[in-house]
Amino acid sequence: MTAPPRRLITHLRHVDLGVEDLAVQRGFYTGLWGLTEVEHDSGISFLAAEGSPEQYVVRLRQATDKRIDLIAFGAATPADVDTLALQLARDGVRLVSEPGTVTTPGGGHGFRFFDNEGRTVEVSADVTPRTHRRIEERESIPVRLSHVVVNSADPEGTVAFYERHLAFALSDVLTHPRMGDMMWFLRCNDWHHSFAVARGPHPSLHHASFEMRGIDEYMRGSGRLMRAGVEKIWGPGRHKAGNNTFTYFLDPLGNTVEYTTELERLDEDTWHPSLHDFSDPEVSDQWGTANRMDEFVARKSFNAPDRGLFVAPPV
Q1: VOC domain spans which residues (predicted)?
Q2: If I label 286, which of 41, 52, 165, 237 is the partner at 20 to 30 A Cα–Cα?
Q3: Mean pLDDT confidence for 281-310
Q4: Which residues pair with 186 in a beta bridge?
């Protein structure tokens, strides 16, 4: 039996989105959502979370088509970046760029490639940490980017790609007696998930999730968005898989974004994935406080088809 590859990815860095109205999106994420713009130039906005050492956790780019520009992960060293690039090329994965200098804020050494469905993925190391700070009590702004979930028309193939080529590990699966397996939670460290794959009608962003300081800050942030009239899809509640809180909203262009906190940390040596049947209400929401998850709620996060598949972003 072939041994699994050594995990070279350490953590999630940022999610980059192509948006049709940059000004509207900038206003939402820096105003209501609570991110800080650290750089803006030539139709691109880099947004940081005040509690995170990452230079930015969201990048917005003015684009003709709505798309995921890329999902970025970190590696421990430039040598690990080079090793991963060689492994992917050897295995027939299509590289977008060879390892080299990263030109976005913080610099570093990285490369890009297409995953099995054509999303652009970046892996980098030696990015200069951002000066960040402790989020204070009652301060209801994101601490960090928690996880990114994608919709996939071939979720089994997408999960297999990230397990085989990037050594992500499966934490849990959401299943349904009628629809079958519907969401796979994948980890690259001891957080329950940094990445997840949902069964959907087409590849697209399902949601991006942002960790808050604690329950009080999570609820205050959720309340701020609701009072402002931002469309709430689902929540507040607490999931069973990952044991994290959730409130999902739609940003002005229809991307789903989540406030969360208390995502579970695992003992990777002893953890075994479970199947969670989300027809059981306590699987979807242990508290019973969220609105009912039904097909109409689920459809909100299908999003528009990603127009950037196998087309690398220009920057």
Answers
A1: 11-126, 144-262
A2: 52
A3: 94
A4: 170, 195
Topology of domain 9-125, CATH: 2,3-Dihydroxybiphenyl 1,2-Dioxygenase; domain 1 (3.10.180)
Strands 109-114 and 95-101 come out as antiparallel
Residue type, 173: V
Q: How confident is the model at residue 100, as a pLDDT? A: 98
pLDDT at 1 over 90: no
Instruction: Identify the residue whose tokens are 């990603």.
Output: 306
pLDDT of 290 over the 80 cut: yes
CA pseudo-torsion sign 281, 283, 286, 292: negative
Ramachandran bin of 65, using left for φ above 0, alpha for ψ from -120 to 50, beta for the remaining angles: beta
The secondary element (H helix, E strand) that includes residue 85 is helix 78-90
Does domain 144-300 fall under CATH 3.30.450.20? My reply is no
Which residue is associated with the tokens 């990285």?
Answer: 110
So what's the pLDDT on residue 3? 55
What confidence tens digit (pLDDT) does each residue in 73-132 have?
Answer: 999 999 999 999 999 999 999 999 999 999 999 999 999 999 999 999 999 999 999 999
- Among residues 165, 161, 204, 157, the alpha carbon closest in space to that of 181 is found at 157
CA distance 159 to 166: 10
24/106 Cα distance (integer angstroms): 26
Q: Residues spanned by CATH 3.10.180.10 within the chain?
A: 9-125, 144-300
pLDDT in tens, 240-268: 999 999 999 999 999 999 999 999 999 99
